[in-house]
Amino acid sequence: MANLYLQQATARDFSYCGNPGDCTKCLFRFLWDFMTPIGEAHGEPPSAFKDVSPREVLHRRAWQEYLAQELLALPLGEFLKLQYWEGHLRMAFFCMRDADLQATVLQRWLESPLEDVRFVDVVMFYLIRHGHLRAPVGDAWVKAAIAMAERTKDRSLVESLVWTLRRSISDHPSFAALARELSQQSPSILKALNETAV
After folding, report:
1. DSSP structural state of residue 135
2. Do 89 and 19 touch, CB atoms closer than 8 A?
3. What is the CB neighbour count within 10 angstroms for residue 92?
4. Which of 168, 108, 96 is CA-nearest to residue 140?
5. pLDDT along the chain (198 residues), means of 10
6. Can you tell me whether residue 73 is helix, strand or coil?
7. Rounded CA gap, 151 and 159, in Å?
8. How many beta carbons lie within 10 A of that of residue 46, not counting itself?
């Protein structure tokens, strides 16, 4: 069966205003364009959203589980071809509030071949850093991201890792050395190192 989340994202590959939840219009669009068809595919009646505020929908466990099922089966290679995949991803995690469901999805993605530096960068900066950094799945993502950063020397990923690790960067001496090396040509990495230093 085709992935419904990918189908909806492909059909409605629109730009989001900013941080998930800041714009009610973007939130409504996501709920109507993504959550409604996903809910209906799982047996929810078409009227499930009527007379219900978006915030109430976000607190329904069943809807979060439906979304998690779609994200667990999401073909990342196809998803990452979309122009606005980052916004779709961040909004999905905003709507899937349950930390255990998020961790399950993050673990599944970690088990897939991680070849897209931008995807790892976004996951580290927006999902791991603000929600799962001290959890086992966060530790596993940090290790995978450091390995990728050391292999690719991608400046954006290195900067994201510096902001994520902060003072614990000293626990990763080879990565810390790479960050210092790249900071000589990257003002943003230098700033991150200076602002997160002990």
Report:
1. S
2. no
3. 22
4. 108
5. 87 86 83 87 74 71 91 95 95 91 96 94 93 86 97 97 94 96 96 86
6. coil
7. 15
8. 10
Q: Would you mind telling me the total number of residues written for the chain in this entry?
A: 198
pLDDT confidence of residue 27: 85
Residues 156, 193 contacting (CB under 8 angstroms): no
Q: C-alpha angle with apex 79: 139 to 96, nearest 5 degrees?
A: 55
In the chain, DSSP assigns E strands to none
Confirm if 130 and 160 have CB atoms less than 8 A apart. no
Check: CB of residue 128 under 8 Å from CB of residue 99. Answer: no
Q: Could you tell me the pTM of the whole model?
A: 0.89
Report the C-alpha gap between 71 and 113 in whole angstroms. 16
End-to-end Cα spacing for the chain: 51
Main-chain phi, psi angles of 47, to 5 degrees: -85, 10
Give the number of other CB atoms < 10 A from CB of residue 135. 17
